[in-house]
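User: My collaborator sent over this chain with a note saying "see what the structure looks like." That's all I know about it. Can you take a look?
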Amino acid sequence: MKKADYLPLSFYVQILICSTLWGSAFPVIKISFSELNLETYSEQLVFAGSRFLLAGLMIVPFCRRSIIPSIRKGTPWKVGMIVLGQTFFQYVFFYYGLRVSSGTLGALLVGTGSFWWILLGPIILKTPKPDRWQWLILGISSIGIALAVYAPGAGSGNALIGSIAFLCASLSGAVAAIYMKQVAPVCGSRTTTAFSLFTGGVMLLVVAVAGWESYLGKFSFTTLWVTAYLAFVSAVAFTLWNRMVEKYSVEVLSTYRFLIPLCGVVESTLFIKEETMGMGIVVGGVMILACLIITSKRNKGV
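Assistant: Without extra context I'll predict from the sequence alone. Here is the result:
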């Protein structure tokens, strides 16, 4: 296949769309917690579950294959790993991270999915093991994360617990993306995405059953349109991203993930008034983004 330098224009357009949409989700979710008066974690998970259930339904009309028969063709446990990793566990951790910490820190650490891919790819996909340069990049990135946690800035809440949650979320997403690479050619990326978002959304609603009553009591038109917007973000971004996972290698996609935290940090800083970037976020963020960019330059093919 073509080298990374000769990827089609459509690839970069889709990457930019995904990064911008996912970047907007950080401030929208964080602001929604206060504006919609979602005080408990259960209420916030009901909010998340509603979003992903609706996102899955949005994708269904665009699926070229019947969902249940297609899913049955895939390896059931691999499809299950995608549901758990892409939607359920990723957002159990992600929403908890946003609950206790900042959108800016979350946006920065979501980019660590690329580093998880470097570590997990050889185990699951049997890709080449990390070389010494990749280990160096991982080491520098770890220092960058430590700096970001040490001095994250105003409005960061419990940065340590939040960072652990965000790292677990990015790990879950990376596992799901790797299995998506194997399942999508059999089941179809849209079909798998629709199934994953819908099923994961239902699972989130089930575990958050304690928050249903209070959530519905606070439900308003604002809740409706915010949920619809976030569902649109998930439907479009996951559909485009998973289609690229099916078409391109994990290594290539991992190199362009730096745009997601970049967009997320910028949009969170612009729209969340209570948050500011501390020196740790600035210096650590530069180190992490630089490592991601270096990783992209070292990529040899798709």
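A starting point for your reply to your collaborator: The CA atoms of residues 155 and 275 lie 5 Å apart.
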